[in-house]
């Protein structure tokens, strides 16, 4: 039976519109309970023996949470203890409107079979649908709908009695008013309504759940220091009006890593460029947390300040007072002043669960403790827990619930424990979570799109593919590499020219647009390499087998083939899908040995020599054009094969062959970028590297000046040249140090869609156009580029999203974000392993270099370990040496102490 | 306009009947045919009404939209009329056949309704000189059986009565920029005062007498008719003569008087019926188009 009913809704789009949607009510929506005999349902979700040991409800019961309970207490609902819950459609819809992340988590719970969560579509049920009444607000109507549904359930379960031994429903709410109204009708229909806090507390078997309760704002036993610490946030309406009128600006809040009292707000400007506003002092920061979207009011020009050069780590409330003193005595340097402002309101909180450690309170019985997040930019969080002693020494996750204006720290609640701090797996999990790296195993849906094994090349695959199996192709990679995505060949043609081919794994052949596999890869964006672990972008079958261009197997490839003369000038370029059969998978060292060994003269070696010769010419040409050679320290760990603990570490060595492969990859990328841009002006996915603003070079110039070396930063070429000649006698490492600093001056290279931008220049490579084509196994951008190129040469068909510049632009944003996070995760992983390495080493003496000088600390780099750390002059137990700080040329008039590795430990350990 | 063929003998029969105040269908000269009114029939309009008069059926829908006031009257809203002569009503309207009639009807409706004496146009003003409500009155002819003007005017009055305009607020920010804010309560709306909205009474001169609410047959016997719009107080707001024949001043006077009388008598029961329906609220049984 189908009933139809229309209801009206007015919305506004420009003017005023009345929208009418048909709303069909039906009577074939089942209750989902196992105990029900009336409903003709095929499968049930809710169990008959729905027993949760609650001292308030001794009978079996189903829970119906209202919207606010779901929104605020999702952590509790996620717990395995909470089962047999009815999620009403009203609740689901409201949650969806109010918070996308919570909605996603709720959906995940519902899909979990063991949780017995049932979605009841009460809005379409004939008996539970209600219409909004005159004078009733939308919220009141929804609350009423929830009550009506609860009432229906209790009646329904009663009538279908027989074997239901007093099965009841319990409405969970955290709103007193709603509870009262529910009790009025609940008395008649025998359903109970309980405040969620009380219910959770009544779960006698699981006391630990109480910790996961989010603190509600009206919690009376709040630690309230009588003084209001922060100014009130403005209401959203005033913020919006202010932004419109220009008195406030909107931006992303970025806390400083070095100084907890300082932050910048990044204002997205026209196009790519944005401006930054400095925020200083607790009051002005006004409870904003890293990554929040905030409204900022600029201070009058005479109150503008320069970024402080103090390194401050929040040690607790006691320090508050002297901090303020320090602020006052700030050196007033007119030139260094920056636009300064204060946060007047929060537009959007960007809170996520944070990983970190619990600082157990000194007072023994206290249930309030401070939590120190692993990310230094996040303030400490005050949580309540009764299991502090067990949680101490563990990595835990905590969510922020709110930050009242009279509290020094935000309030939060415990979400879950990850495990003991310092354990490798746990720490790895922490840094994956902290960097938002999707690292779950691939789902069945994703795996279902993998090719069936055993896989072989079929004749259909050969259509539109060139057979290059006869060529002497080989791959050169770092040792232990299993995802080989590129291979090379070089041979002499009959006309005396050279044919050079770059063959890239044809991943886009296996990952078809739009399927679950593709979506997952697009979301992951990149493979993340941690020390001793790889988090794949595509399932292992593809990454290490079918797409990996291993030796002596037939593999599908996408080839870029040039005809060059001996001066490395490109005479002809062509792209084709192909089949190759690599003759050898070499490491850089092996390849180097073959080239150097004059006795060897086989095809592979000849091919390598040809490549190497051309690569050298290419590199020289590139550097002449102004490409930068920058330096950053990369360390490799030698792992113990049994314990996977690092036993030794070395900085990466670069060999000729490294740069040989690199040169051809760059060349292929540039050729492909040109081709896809010529073909698709509007929707080519390219990569650019903007020139840094001159102010970025300050640190580099200052550092160079300290040794009386001049660095020119006008153009990339000038910079490259002056870096080449910047040498100090008796200080061979100086040049490398300058290059490390120069790297930090650079902007991030980003992916973008050609239709959305008009500046394509790649500053670092000094190339007018660039993209990523050569690593489709580990980067999603390359897959898109492959698809574009395949369409351009007629080897594959296109699809709408590929040609939609807005969709592509959105994809680029995700890829840029994932790449950035992957980089950070990688660094954090290295840092952690360095820590592990030192754990067993004790005190070592190594040579270190001062990178930056701050007012109360120096940043020191130890090249041998690629380790960078902050050394404070005044630590707790040592008296600060008298120091004179000069802002102009940061320098301190104390001899730089030999850096001791221990000083660096606080960096991660807290 | 839809016409019927009437033979001479029939004409004489009709003429003689009217002379004796007895019309073919048994009515007196100043009687209307059976009339049915239903409001709120089209859910996606802001106000609507369906009126059947004999076999004539019209549907009126009103949509309120925000527009810019006319420069000459910055503090008033206005009405827009469109008459759609659907081919459902009569095959003659097929293609562009009904266009001429539609324009003629809507022109008359402008004259009758779009002035501040009929509708309180000031109440349609949101922000003088900048925003006002524009009421788009769409008339759809469903069936033609004579006396379109009267049926349309009654339907418009009923639809205006039924119209619910969402209540809006003007918020001003610090800079003086104005923004329209809409209440999120669908029941929070403004009603129009329809007390002064006139109804049209069409009088057909048949022989020496005149009749109200002429059927198509009677119309065929008539040489000319007079359209009079009358308010509930009996004030004549507009007259118009249609038809090929001529009317002598004396009969014009007589017809005007009759029109005033009939019009006045029409308003009271109409308002009563409308209010009754309104009071039914949700209990109202919808008839719609299949009833």
TrEMBL record, chain A:
InterPro entries: Dis3_CSD2, NA-bd_OB-fold, PIN-like_dom_sf, PIN_dom, RNase_II/R, RNase_II/R_CS, RNR_Ribonuclease, Rrp44_CSD1. Its main location: cytoplasm. Keywords: Cytoplasm, Endonuclease, Exonuclease, Exosome, Hydrolase, Nuclease, Nucleus, RNA-binding, rRNA processing. Its cofactor is Mg(2+). One of its GO terms (cellular component) is nucleolus. Residues 61-180 form the PIN domain. One of its GO terms (biological process) is CUT catabolic process. Gene3D superfamilies: 2.40.50.690, 2.40.50.700, 5'-nuclease (3.40.50.1010), Nucleic acid-binding proteins (2.40.50.140). GO terms for molecular function: 3'-5'-RNA exonuclease activity; endonuclease activity; RNA binding. It is found in: Cytoplasm; Nucleus, Nucleolus. Residues 465-795 form the RNB domain. Coiled coil: none annotated. It comes from the Eukaryota. Belongs to the RNR ribonuclease family. PANTHER family: EXOSOME COMPLEX EXONUCLEASE RRP44, RIBONUCLEASE. This is Protein DIS3 homolog. It comes from Amphiprion percula. The lineage of its organism: Eukaryota, Metazoa, Chordata, Craniata, Vertebrata.
UniProtKB/TrEMBL annotation, chain B:
CDD domains: RNase_PH_RRP42. One of its GO terms (biological process) is exonucleolytic trimming to generate mature 3'-end of 5.8S rRNA from tricistronic rRNA transcript (SSU-rRNA, 5.8S rRNA, LSU-rRNA). GO terms for molecular function: mRNA 3'-UTR AU-rich region binding. Component of the RNA exosome core complex (Exo-9), composed of EXOSC1, EXOSC2, EXOSC3, EXOSC4, EXOSC5, EXOSC6, EXOSC7, EXOSC8 and EXOSC9; within the complex interacts with EXOSC2 and EXOSC4. The catalytically inactive RNA exosome core complex (Exo-9) associates with the catalytic subunit EXOSC10/RRP6. Exo-9 may associate with DIS3 to form the nucleolar exosome complex, or DIS3L to form the cytoplasmic exosome complex. Exo-9 is formed by a hexameric base ring consisting of the heterodimers EXOSC4-EXOSC9, EXOSC5-EXOSC8 and EXOSC6-EXOSC7, and a cap ring consisting of EXOSC1, EXOSC2 and EXOSC3. One of its GO terms (cellular component) is nucleolus. Residues 32-166, 196-261 form the Exoribonuclease phosphorolytic domain. Belongs to the RNase PH family. It comes from Amphiprion percula. Keywords: Acetylation, Cytoplasm, Exosome, Nucleus, RNA-binding, rRNA processing. It comes from the Eukaryota. It holds the Pfam family RNase_PH. The keyword Magnesium does not apply. It is found in: Cytoplasm; Nucleus, Nucleolus. This is Exosome component 7.
């Amino acid at each position: 039976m189908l009933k139809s009913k229309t209801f009206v809704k007015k919305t506004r789009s420009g003017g005023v519109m009345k929208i009418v949607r048909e709303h069909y009510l039906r009577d074939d929506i089942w209750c989902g309970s196992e105990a029900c005999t009336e409903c003709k349902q095929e499968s049930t979700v809710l169990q008959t023996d729905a027993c949760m040991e609650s001292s308030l409800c001794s009978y079996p019961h189903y829970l119906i949470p209202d919207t606010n309970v779901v929104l605020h207490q999702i952590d509790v609902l996620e717990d395995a203890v909470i089962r047999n819950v009815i999620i009403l459609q009203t609740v689901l819809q409201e949650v969806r409107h109010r918070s996308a992340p919570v909605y996603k988590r709720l959906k995940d719970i519902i899909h979990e079979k063991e949780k017995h969560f049932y979605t009841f579509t009460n809005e379409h049920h004939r008996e539970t649908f209600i219409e909004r009444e005159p004078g009733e607000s939308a919220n009141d109507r929804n609350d009423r709908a929830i009550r009506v549904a609860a009432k229906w359930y209790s009646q329904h379960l009663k009538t279908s009695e027989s074997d239901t031994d007093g099965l009841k429903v319990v409405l969970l709410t955290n709103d007193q008013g709603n509870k009262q109204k529910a009790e009025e009708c609940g008395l008649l229909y025998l359903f109970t309504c309980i405040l969620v806090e009380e219910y959770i507390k009544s779960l006698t078997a699981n006391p630990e759940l109480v910790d996961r309760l989010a603190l509600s704002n009206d919690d009376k036993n709040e630690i309230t220091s009588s003084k209001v610490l922060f100014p009130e946030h403005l209401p959203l309406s005033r913020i919006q009006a202010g932004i419109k009128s220009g008195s406030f600006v909107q931006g992303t809040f970025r806390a400083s890593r070095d100084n907890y009292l300082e932050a910048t707000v990044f204002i997205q400007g026209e196009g790519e460029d944005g401006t930054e506003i400095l925020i200083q002092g607790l009051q002005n920061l006004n409870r904003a947390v890293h990554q929040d979207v905030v409204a900022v009011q600029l201070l009058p020009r005479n109150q503008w300040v320069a970024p402080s050069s103090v390194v401050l780590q929040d040690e607790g409330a006691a320090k508050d007072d002297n901090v303020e003193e320090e602020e006052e005595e700030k050196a007033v340097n007119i030139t260094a002043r920056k636009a300064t402002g204060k946060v007047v309101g929060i537009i959007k909180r960007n809170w996520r669960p944070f990983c970190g450690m619990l600082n157990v309170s000194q007072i023994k019985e206290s249930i309030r403790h401070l939590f120190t997040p692993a990310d230094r930019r996040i303030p400490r969080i005050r949580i309540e827990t009764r299991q502090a002693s067990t949680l101490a020494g563990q990595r835990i996750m905590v969510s922020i619930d709110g930050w009242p204006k009279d509290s020094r720290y935000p309030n939060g609640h415990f979400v879950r424990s990850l495990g003991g701090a310092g354990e490798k797996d746990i720490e790895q999990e922490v840094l994956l979570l902290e960097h938002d790296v999707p690292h779950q195993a691939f789902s069945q849906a994703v795996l279902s799109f993998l090719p069936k094994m055993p896989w072989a090349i079929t004749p259909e695959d050969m259509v539109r593919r060139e057979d290059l199996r006869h060529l002497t192709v080989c791959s050169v990679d770092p040792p232990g590499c299993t995802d080989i995505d590129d291979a090379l060949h070089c041979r002499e043609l009959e006309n005396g020219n050279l044919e050079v081919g770059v063959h890239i794994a044809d991943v886009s052949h296996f990952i078809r647009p739009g399927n679950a596999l593709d979506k997952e890869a697009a979301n992951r964006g990149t493979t993340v390499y941690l020390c001793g672990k790889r988090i794949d972008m595509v399932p292992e079958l593809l990454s290490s087998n079918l797409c990996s261009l291993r030796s002596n197997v037939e593999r599908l490839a996408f080839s870029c083939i040039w005809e060059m003369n001996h001066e490395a000038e490109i005479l002809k370029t062509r792209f084709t899908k192909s089949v190759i059969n690599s003759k050898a998978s070499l490491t850089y060292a092996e390849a180097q040995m073959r080239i150097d060994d004059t006795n060897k003269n086989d095809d592979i070696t000849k091919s390598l020599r040809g490549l190497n010769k051309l690569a050298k010419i290419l590199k020289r040409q590139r550097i002449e054009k102004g490409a930068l050679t920058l330096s950053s320290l990369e360390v490799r760990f030698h792992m113990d094969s049994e314990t996977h603990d690092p036993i030794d570490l070395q900085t990466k060595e670069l060999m000729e062959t490294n740069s040989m492969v690199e040169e051809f990859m760059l060349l292929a990328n540039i050729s492909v970028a040109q081709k896809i841009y010529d073909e698709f002006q509007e929707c080519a996915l390219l990569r650019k590297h903007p020139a840094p603003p001159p102010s970025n070079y300050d640190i580099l110039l200052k550092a160079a000046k300290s040794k009386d070396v001049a660095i020119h930063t006008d153009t990339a070429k000038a910079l490259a040249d002056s870096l080449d000649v910047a040498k100090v006698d008796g200080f061979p490492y100086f040049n490398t140090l300058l290059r490390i600093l120069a790297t930090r001056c650079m902007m991030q290279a980003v992916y973008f869609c050609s239709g959305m931008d008009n500046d394509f220049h790649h500053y670092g490579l000094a190339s007018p156009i660039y993209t990523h084509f050569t690593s489709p196994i580990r980067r999603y951008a390359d897959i898109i580029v492959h698809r574009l190129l395949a369409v351009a040469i007629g080897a594959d068909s296109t699809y709408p999203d590929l040609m939609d510049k807005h969709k592509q632009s959105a994809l680029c944003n995700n890829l840029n974000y994932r790449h950035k996070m992957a980089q950070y995760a990688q660094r954090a992983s290295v840092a952690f392993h360095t820590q592990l390495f030192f754990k067993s080493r004790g005190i070592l003496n190594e040579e270190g270099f001062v990178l930056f000088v701050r007012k109360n600390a120096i940043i020191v780099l130890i090249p041998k370990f690629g380790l960078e750390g902050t050394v404070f002059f005044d630590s707790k137990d040592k008296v600060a040496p008298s120091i004179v700080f000069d802002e102009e040329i940061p320098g301190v008039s104390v001899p730089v102490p030999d850096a001791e590795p221990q000083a660096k430990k606080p960096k991660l350990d807290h | 306009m839809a016409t019927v063929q009437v033979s001479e003998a029939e004409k004489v029969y009709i003429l003689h009947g009217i002379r004796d105040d007895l019309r073919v269908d048994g009515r007196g000269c100043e009687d209307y045919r059976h009339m049915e009114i239903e409001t709120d029939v089209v859910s996606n309009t802001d106000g609507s009404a369906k009126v059947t008069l004999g076999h004539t059926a019209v549907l009126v829908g009103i949509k309120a939209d925000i527009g810019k006031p006319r420069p000459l009257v910055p503090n008033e809203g206005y009405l827009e009329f469109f008459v759609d002569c659907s081919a459902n009503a009569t095959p003659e309207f097929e293609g562009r056949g009904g266009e001429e009639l539609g324009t003629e009807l809507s022109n008359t409706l402008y004259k009758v309704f779009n002035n501040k004496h009929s509708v309180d146009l000031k109440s349609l003003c949101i922000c003088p000189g900048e925003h006002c409500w524009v009421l788009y009155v769409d008339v759809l002819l469903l069936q033609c059986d004579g006396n379109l003007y009267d049926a349309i005017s009654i339907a418009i009055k009923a639809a205006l009565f039924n119209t619910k305009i969402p209540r809006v607020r003007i918020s001003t920010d610090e800079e003086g920029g104005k923004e329209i804010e809409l209440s999120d309560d669908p029941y929070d709306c403004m009603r129009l005062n329809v007390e002064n909205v006139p109804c049209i009474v069409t009088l057909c001169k048949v022989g020496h007498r005149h009749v109200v609410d002429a059927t198509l047959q009677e119309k065929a016997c008539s040489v000319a008719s007079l359209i009079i719009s009358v308010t509930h107080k009996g004030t004549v707001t507009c007259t118009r003569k249609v038809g090929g024949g001529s009317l002598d001043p004396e009969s014009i006077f007589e017809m005007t008087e009759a029109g005033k009388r009939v019009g006045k008598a029409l308003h009271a029961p109409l308002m009563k019926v409308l209010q009754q329906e309104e009071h039914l609220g949700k209990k109202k049984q919808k008839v719609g188009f299949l009833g």
